[in-house]
Amino acid sequence: MKKLQNDFFEQVYAVVRLIPEGRVTSYGAIARYLGTAKSSRMVGYAMNASHHALPVVPAHRVVNRNGLLTGKNHFITITAMQEALESEQIKIVNDEVIAFKTLFWDPNIELEL
DNA sequence: GTAATGACCTTGG
DNA sequence: ACCAAGGCCATTA
Predict the structure, then answer these.
(1) Protein-contacted positions of strand B (CB under 7 Å)
(2) Nearest Cα to A44, choosing from A56, A28, A32, A57?
(3) pTM of the predicted model, to two decimals?
(4) Which of A5, A6, A12, A84 is such that its CA lies 20 to 30 A from the CA of A36?
(5) What is the tens place of the pLDDT at every residue in A12-60?
(6) Minimum CA–C1' distance nucleotide for A41
């Protein structure tokens, strides 16, 4: 343990923490930005470990490609994610981000290497 | 040690 | 356009 995945996790956390307030992104976008486009699943796993990660990672701003709050179940409470997003003026209906396409924040585009 | 699962995405039919 | 399968890699059983 304590290997490269730690760095990978840190990179994921770093990108997630860079997400502007009121914006959302997808696992694939982050994965692609890190160069691990095919390991998008690991990004989600990283999020799972983000709970004990410091500083606090705004995992609620990370949703799947569908804009669906797939990881709400993994939060402290299933409503925590939605409330957190709503707290940032992001409307959530049926566990889905409204205007997700508009609020979508792609590190590959916004950060643009 | 092997097998199955998972906060997903891309490609093929 | 919709449905099915594959891939990727770490964690858990």
Answers:
(1) 6-10
(2) A28
(3) 0.90
(4) A84
(5) 999 999 999 999 999 999 999 998 888 899 999 999 999 988 899 999 9
(6) B8
